[in-house]
Design goal:
Radius of gyration: 26 Å
Structural class: alpha+beta
Oligomer: single chain
Distance between the termini: 83 Å
Number of strands: 11
Largest sheet: 6 strands, antiparallel
Shape: elongated
Strand content: 15-25%
Order of helices and strands: HHHHHHHEEEHHEHEEHEEEEHEH
Helix content: 40-55%
Length: 462
């Protein structure tokens, strides 16, 4: 009974700790800004909103809350030694990494980096700087890196589950330029979740003893326990041109689970044999980064799905609450006929729809290659393409640039887009146009692109 009452009191205290921590609100604000920028990108490319940034933020908030409770229950049996100074240190490193790359807004990088720093500092046990630096060094030395890496592993199990359940719903369609210079359709799948964690830690003073012994910490739990609130951000980012969003989410889930198992095994072994701690810390960062680079390499080697076949028009996305969604058309299917006529361009689609402005008949080839037939009245106010976003043709004027997004772009609501222009109308002054293309191409070649193309081809080099 005493343990239950103390645990209830600690939970109340942990909730108050969470509500007064600025990092929790910073994370929520960042996520809201991030989804707001995605909506602006959709309007820029398609002139229509496919997602609600408020709904996306609310969905991640609920998902993070549920996952936070689940992770807190799991790690209560692991045992985490953490102080408030360590929490501040971890969050400062996390926010510093955020300003380098948005995808570094993850504890896998921050805790892995702190593990490497601790390994280096331990080589100089007599180094005791004074003042503020001494406090930082002391905090890093006192961190239980193996248990924190175990926490990262458990967090990525939760991330894998969230990706499986919610990942496809965050997929944003894009028009992008492939490595061969062709405009294709694709999906950017990127989401973040804020998990409010409540960590049971060994008490500094006497208190009720836990009815179980945590796996990590040993005799440190004999003096009782206390509760510490820790807001944690997890997230994933994928770009796919060769798979449907739910297929990519399923593959990502499996790889994250594998990463979690490997990291958890390394962290538990390093808890018993400390020399392996540096291996586990490096694995936290390098394996996480390796998953991202392997996915990109895989995408470059596969054929793009969202390109138009020889007959019909490939569907890239469907506008919510539109006639296409009502009829059951899904991304990846092919729009073959409209009102009995084969279509091969958006102009033909619009022309066929105008043949009967009050009614339409559609023949659609599904993902299995089978034809299905729809018919529906057309009402005033319906989307001009019935809510179908088609894969791009080569006349597209605005595409998304595959550069790594920065925190500055999110705050200023700037978009990674590229405006395409044709050189065919530059006959009167070909030399300035040639110089402009050379400058643009060489600048792109030195930019940190997510999907690089090392070959630069100029229009006049035949």
């Amino acid at each position: 009974m005493d343990v239950a009452l103390e645990l209830l009191w600690n939970v109340t205290d942990g909730l108050l700790q969470l509500l007064i921590q600025p990092f929790y609100y910073i994370s929520i604000l960042f996520i809201m800004l991030f989804y707001r920028q995605q909506v602006l990108m959709e309007r820029k490319l398609f002139s229509v909103r496919l997602h609600s940034w408020g709904l996306q933020a609310w969905r991640t908030f609920i998902g993070g809350l549920v996952a936070g409770v689940g992770v807190s229950l799991v790690i209560a049996f692991l045992g985490i030694s953490l102080t408030r100074e360590a929490i501040v240190c971890i969050w400062v490193v996390t926010l510093a990494l955020l300003f380098l790359r948005v995808r570094y807004f993850c504890f896998a990088y921050a805790i892995g980096l702190l593990g490497v720093v601790q390994f280096i500092v331990d080589f100089f046990p007599k180094w005791q700087p004074g003042s503020f630096m001494g406090t930082i060094v002391g905090t890093v030395r006192d961190m239980d890196i193996p248990s924190l890496l175990a926490l990262v592993a458990v967090l990525h199990v939760a991330e894998a589950i969230l990706v499986k359940k919610q990942g496809a719903s965050f997929a944003m369609p894009l028009f992008v330029e492939s490595k061969r210079g062709k405009i294709v359709g694709g999906y950017q799948m990127q989401a973040f979740w804020v998990l409010p964690l409540f960590l049971l830690i060994p008490a500094q003073t006497t208190g009720s003893v836990l009815p179980w012994t945590p796996l990590l910490g040993g005799a440190g739990w004999s003096g009782g326990f206390s509760l510490l609130a820790l807001p944690v951000v997890i997230g994933f980012g994928e770009m796919t041109q060769s798979l449907l969003p739910h297929q990519k989410a399923s593959i990502t889930c499996k790889r994250l689970l594998l990463y979690s198992v490997v990291l958890l095994a390394l962290s538990l072994v390093s808890a018993w044999w400390s020399p392996l701690m540096i291996v586990a810390a490096l694995a936290s960062c390098l394996l996480h980064e390796g998953l991202i680079w392997f996915s990109r390499l895989e995408e470059q080697q596969r054929n793009a799905v969202f390109v138009h076949p020889s007959k019909g028009m490939r569907v890239l996305a469907v506008v919510p609450n539109s006639p296409a969604e009502e009829l059951g058309i899904v991304p990846g299917e092919t729009l073959l006929k409209v009102n009995g006529i084969f279509i091969n361009s958006t102009e033909q689609l619009h022309s066929c729809l105008r043949m009967n402005p009050a009614f339409c008949k559609l023949e659609v080839q599904n993902l299995a290659g089978e034809s299905k037939y729809f018919q529906r009245p057309i009402y005033a106010g319906d989307h001009h393409q019935l809510g179908v976003i088609l894969a791009p043709d080569q006349k597209v004027t605005v595409t998304a640039s595959m550069r790594s997004i920065s925190i500055y772009q999110i705050i200023r609501m700037r978009l990674n887009t590229t405006k395409r222009t044709s050189l065919r109308n530059e006959v009167a002054s070909p030399e300035p146009a040639k110089q402009a293309v050379i400058a643009l191409a060489e600048t792109a070649a030195t930019t940190d692109m997510d999907i690089p193309d090392p070959v630069i081809r100029y229009p006049w080099d035949k």
